């Protein structure tokens, strides 16, 4: 085996087995991690392990996805039967599909929580700007992954969620129609769409993901690791092996166990075969898009998309918007920031349902302002009102709490985040037939 | 710093345990999932069947006129390929067209697979119920009836007469839909009541029936019939001219489509069912017999529709009641029609001195003493 050791070590191998083992482990692990990490970064509540859990879920998704590819057939004629076969005649096929399905959904949640965590710790400023953007891109990639994967079982749920989803896209001016045409390869969801989504899901997106993820990891290390509060005395540093590796291994095993047991208990959903002639009522997009779909019920599509776009742009430009590095690493900046965040969240929790109810039952702007075109009365006006409301929240926090810019931003963004959460919840649970409000029990 | 590792390995232990349990149950889970899937396929196929197939093959797959029946062991024993290809591509020279979308039809591969599942594992009562809800009431007898006088007439023909009678009976039940009631043949099958056929020997005919004719609709009947039944059939076919000369002929029953929105038609159906099913015990026009006099004010004023329906579905609730449960034998549509017909009697029903049936002893009217606990 001498030639093999030469391949790995180039010069002679370490003399003892113990050293050899160490050398291999160290070199692999230390490609990702620095040799030593600050003790503060190792405290679990500092990160909640969210980035690591997301990375682990990505690996689970790659492995389970590759296994699924052995039995899946991306043709309209056979996609559904191949999934049925997976569920009934392939040993562990149902479990495999459930693991892939739930890991994909969980990844959306952990990635968003990771974003929230990094925002709260202020880890998006100065040299971390670039990685914040990469991270946002990766989150978008996760959503596209989920969106493309959603169609593949070719059941009613898949077919109509994608029909609704690509329908949302076409509202986007200029770009919407071409993107939708490219994705679907035709005017409706049919064989070309299934083939396209499959190609994107298993070939193009994974390549982008691997490059993006590698860059994301590399930047984390190069930008100084986890954001920590500045301290007067130099913080103690611990060796990565075993301190960090033990935590990672522990969290990974617990996550895997949780995911696998959940997948064993709750199989992935599979509805009837897709039937383009019979739309379900209500026809809903995938759950993570229901916030936007809910927004569409309240304003002109253009306004809703513009609002989403402004939100995304705001997140992307956050490093330029908030450059105050004084409170870096302190969760929610300061006690004032924490209060602002709580107030923002509370307002979001109160006002969003209230506004949904008001718009659903009392306020009907287009009939009230019958002289104006609907693009103004149902589009521009609600959009401006919403933006004015957000500005008012920001201004109120600034003057009422005497909050600094970065502290007021915490309040503003926690309002927006909670509002989106509420809208999504309304979309998931409170929308029934014809998208009318219902009480779920 | 050991804590996360301990927690992690505990989790791993839990995972290994859970995986072992899952593995142990996997085989059974797959069996159940397959059974469930087959059930779903049969249910879906029933709807497709009623929509596309029932007009020719009959509301319960009993076959109509020249169209072959599907609810028999011959079809159930056919292999997947034959059934799939027959449905997908049709059958040349017959009324059966290609149903697959690729052949200009209306059904997808998936739907045809489901239809094959229905044919092979068939649950025709389910189809019958669905068809009834669409207003297609199957005839109570799919095959022509062979009357006792006819059997007696054939038996009198000679020493082998009883075998021929048996053969005629089997022919009526299994063969008429393709070969015709008088053996005249159809677009699906050759004529049998011919001198050419009678010129063959019994062994040839027996072999044809037993093994079928590849490339035609003629199934191998040795899966469904006993050897002695097949030879009885062959004997009958060889002597059909003599049977016919004795004046014995079969006639096919006909199906009728009922407009369920038409109250008159439903009442007529109810009346037909009542006379064929109920009067044996409940007397002519429901005037009473073994069972109570339904056509009486006492009965009708004390029982509401729900109670009557319940009694038809579940049978008599009194111990030793000889009222059978009809829930399995009649579809919901037929039961509703029956109840409506019974209710319609109330306008003209007489008051009867003693409405009780002979089976119910004394001690006052049963509906007064038989309180629900």
From TrEMBL, chain A:
SUPFAM superfamilies linked: Transmembrane di-heme cytochromes
Pfam families registered for this protein in UniProt = Cytochrome_B
Ranges for domain Cytochrome b/b6 N-terminal region profile come to 1-229
Keywords of the record, alphabetical order, are: Membrane, Transmembrane, Transmembrane helix
Q: Name one GO biological process term.
A: respiratory electron transport chain
Q: Which PROSITE patterns match?
A: CYTB_NTER
* A GO molecular-function descriptor: oxidoreductase activity
State the superkingdom: Bacteria
Q: Where are the transmembrane segments?
A: 48-70, 102-120, 132-152, 196-218, 244-266, 297-318, 339-358, 370-397, 409-430
For this entry, the protein name equals Cytochrome b/b6 domain protein
TrEMBL record, chain B:
Q: Where is this region: Disordered?
A: 350-373
Q: Which organism is it from?
A: Oscillochloris trichoides DG-6
Domain Cytochrome c as annotated: residue spans: 40-123, 162-241, 265-346
**Which Gene3D superfamilies is this protein grouped with?**
Cytochrome c-like domain (1.10.760.10)
Ion transport among keywords: no
Q: List the InterPro entries.
A: Cyt_c-like_dom, Cyt_c-like_dom_sf, Cyt_C_IC, Cytochrome_c_Oxidase_Subunit
Any matching Pfam family: Cytochrome_CBB3
Lineage at the top is:
Bacteria, Bacillati, Chloroflexota, Chloroflexia, Chloroflexales
Protein name according to UniProt: Cytochrome c domain-containing protein
Q: Which UniProt keywords apply?
A: Electron transport, Heme, Iron, Metal-binding, Transport
**MF (Gene Ontology):** electron transfer activity; heme binding; iron ion binding
Q: Where is the signal peptide?
A: none
Return the PANTHER family for the record: CBB3-TYPE CYTOCHROME C OXIDASE SUBUNIT FIXP
């Amino acid at each position: 085996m001498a030639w093999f050791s030469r391949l790995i070590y180039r010069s002679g191998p370490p003399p003892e087995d113990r050293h050899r083992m160490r050398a291999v482990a160290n070199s692999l692990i230390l490609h990702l991690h620095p040799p030593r990490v600050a003790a503060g970064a190792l405290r679990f509540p500092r990160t909640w392990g969210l980035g690591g859990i997301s990375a682990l879920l990505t690996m689970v998704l790659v492995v389970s996805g590759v296994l699924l590819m052995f039995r899946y057939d991306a043709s309209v004629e056979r996609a559904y039967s191949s999934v049925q076969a997976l569920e009934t005649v392939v040993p562990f096929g149902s479990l495999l599909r459930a693991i892939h399905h739930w890991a994909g959904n969980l990844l959306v949640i952990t990635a968003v929580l990771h974003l929230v965590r990094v925002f709260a710790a202020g880890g998006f400023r100065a040299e971390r700007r670039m990685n914040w953007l990469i991270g946002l891109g990766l989150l978008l990639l996760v959503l596209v992954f989920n969106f493309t994967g959603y169609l593949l079982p070719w059941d009613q749920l898949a077919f109509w969620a994608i029909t609704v989803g690509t329908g949302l896209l076409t509202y986007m001016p200029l770009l919407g129609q071409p993107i939708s045409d490219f994705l679907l390869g035709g005017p409706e969801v049919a064989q070309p769409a299934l083939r396209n989504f499959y190609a994107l899901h298993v070939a193009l997106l994974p390549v982008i993901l691997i490059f993006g993820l590698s860059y994301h990891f590399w930047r984390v290390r190069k930008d100084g690791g986890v954001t920590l509060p500045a301290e007067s005395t130099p913080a103690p540093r611990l060796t990565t092996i075993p301190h960090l590796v033990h935590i990672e291994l522990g969290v990974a095993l617990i996550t895997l166990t949780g995911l696998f047991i959940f997948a064993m208990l709750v199989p992935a959903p599979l509805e009837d075969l897709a039937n383009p002639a019979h739309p379900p009522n209500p026809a809903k997009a995938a759950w993570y898009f229901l916030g936007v779909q809910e927004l569409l019920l309240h304003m002109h599509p253009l306004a809703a998309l513009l609002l989403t776009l402004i939100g995304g742009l705001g997140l992307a430009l956050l490093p330029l918007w908030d450059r105050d590095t004084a409170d870096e690493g302190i969760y929610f900046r300061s006690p004032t920031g924490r209060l602002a965040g709580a107030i923002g969240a509370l307002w979001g929790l109160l006002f969003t349902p209230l506004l949904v109810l008001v718009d659903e039952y009392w306020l009907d702007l287009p009939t009230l302002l019958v002289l104006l075109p609907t693009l103004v009365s149902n589009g521009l006006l609600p959009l401006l009102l919403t933006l004015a409301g957000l500005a008012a929240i920001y201004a109120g926090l600034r003057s009422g709490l005497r909050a600094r810019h970065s502290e007021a931003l915490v309040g503003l963004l926690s309002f927006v985040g909670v509002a989106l959460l509420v809208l999504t919840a309304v979309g998931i649970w409170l929308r029934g037939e014809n998208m009318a409000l219902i009480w779920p029990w | 710093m050991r804590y996360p590792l301990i927690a992690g390995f505990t989790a791993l232990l839990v995972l290994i345990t859970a995986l072992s349990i899952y593995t142990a149950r996997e085989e059974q889970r797959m069996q159940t999932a397959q059974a469930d899937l087959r059930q779903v396929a049969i249910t879906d196929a029933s709807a497709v069947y009623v929509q596309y197939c029932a007009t020719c093959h009959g509301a319960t797959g009993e076959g109509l006129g020249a169209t072959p029946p599907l609810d028999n062991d011959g079809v159930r024993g056919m292999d997947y390929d034959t059934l799939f290809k027959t449905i997908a591509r049709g059958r040349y020279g017959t009324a059966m067209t290609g149903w697959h979308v690729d052949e200009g039809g209306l059904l997808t591969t998936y739907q045809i697979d489901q239809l094959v599942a229905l044919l092979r594992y068939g649950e025709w009562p389910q189809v019958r119920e669905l068809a009834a809800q669409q207003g297609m009431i199957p005839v109570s007898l799919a095959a022509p009836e062979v009357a006792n006088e006819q059997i007696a007439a054939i038996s009198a023909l000679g020493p082998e007469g009883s075998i021929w009678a048996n053969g005629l009976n089997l022919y009526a039940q299994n063969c008429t839909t393709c070969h015709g009631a008088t053996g005249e043949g159809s677009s699906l099958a050759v004529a049998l009541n011919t001198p050419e056929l009678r010129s063959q020997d019994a062994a040839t005919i027996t072999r044809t029936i037993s093994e079928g004719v590849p490339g035609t609709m003629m199934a191998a009947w040795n899966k469904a019939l006993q050897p002695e039944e097949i030879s009885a059939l062959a004997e009958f076919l060889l002597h059909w001219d003599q049977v016919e000369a004795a004046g014995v002929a079969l006639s096919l029953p006909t199906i009728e489509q009922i407009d369920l929105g038409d109250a008159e038609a439903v009442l007529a159906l109810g009346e037909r069912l009542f006379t064929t099913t109920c009067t044996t015990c409940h007397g002519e026009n429901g005037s009473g017999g073994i069972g109570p006099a339904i056509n009486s004010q006492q009965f009708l004023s004390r029982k509401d529709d729900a109670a009557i329906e319940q009694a038809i579905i579940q049978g008599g609730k009194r111990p030793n009641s000889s009222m059978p449960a009809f829930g399995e034998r009649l579809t919901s549509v037929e039961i509703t029609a029956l109840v409506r017909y019974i209710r319609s009697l109330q306008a003209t029903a007489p008051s009867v001195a003693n409405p009780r049936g002979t089976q119910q002893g004394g001690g006052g009217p049963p509906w007064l003493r038989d309180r629900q606990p």
